């Protein structure tokens, strides 16, 4: 017999409005490490995050009698593979992006919980970023239509934006139109390629350029958010005999490796790093506030509090299909971080977005040029 879920079950979710779609929320539990064995007083097997039946819920063990069960779209256990995580969370999103939708996958969780492993991985176990790009390139190669693929890779560190594909360009500014839409990073390089090898090199170079600061918690702890953006434009002739009239579908896929969500005090941050911790908390705090507001159905959501939420505005409440992968260690030594992450992911369960195909009729622009040509001809005739 199942104990009633404390939260997160389908019945406790608010209804989804017509045309809207729920955020997909996945949880990935990383394998226990050798140095996490032997420290637990109350949890079985040194673990306090345990995958439950049907791989859709986790039990978070607390001290006697304070267990909680959380339900998600999918829970990946310690044995899950990179292929499986990609196939379940991102492969259909890639197809949607090729059809003109916007998509976002973001990895959330404390430092050391496995975010970079999932998003970037290593050459032997490539993560979501590499697999998604591979699938996009393959689809583009196999299709006879006209496609263009561009990518950019940026770091948000200490509330400052750097171009990971061109780190020497310094700090970049966010720009948006007067209605607060169409957010852009001014001066960010957009690289056009369909070569997997070239992309691997670019991503590796970009990852090396990420700001890493050692903390007491994890020697290679990254205090930075990394955002990979891939834009796919697909031009379809409206009329096969008229190549000046094209319909262009444009999809954008954001793949985000967030900074660690742990509290600053746990990592014994001091001085400079404390300030950075504060800024990371500011961005993640703002993200948390947005998630709270969205999951509570608030009419007003404040995206303006941090650069991260300004960049993620569409992904969270707007025109985007969004997947969140929350990462936890099974170790009871990480119990506070795991609990915070599960509570956060549980709230995200209630968020819905409304995705639409981004399509524009290019003949409109061409016709404008045709008008100019006609006017010029008339002018010449008058001479
Ligand atoms: P984060 O980016 O969240 O700080 P990492 O992805 O760097 O965490 O993971 C911390 C360590 O644990 C790394 O050595 C990583 O290779 C390992 N690790 C994380 N997740 C897994 C997993 N699912 N399988 C195997 N090793 C993992
Ligand atoms: Mg990382």
UniProtKB/TrEMBL annotation:
GO biological process, one term: microtubule-based movement
Residue ranges of every copy of the Kinesin motor domain listed in the record: 22-351
Signal peptide positions (record): none
Subcellular location: Cytoplasm, Cytoskeleton
Broad class of the protein's primary localization: cytoplasm
Species the sequence originates in: Henosepilachna vigintioctopunctata
Included stretch of the parent chain: 3 to 385 of 749
Protein name per its UniProtKB record: Kinesin-like protein
UniProt keyword Isomerase, yes or no: no
Family the entry assigns: Belongs to the TRAFAC class myosin-kinesin ATPase superfamily. Kinesin family. KIN-5/BimC subfamily.
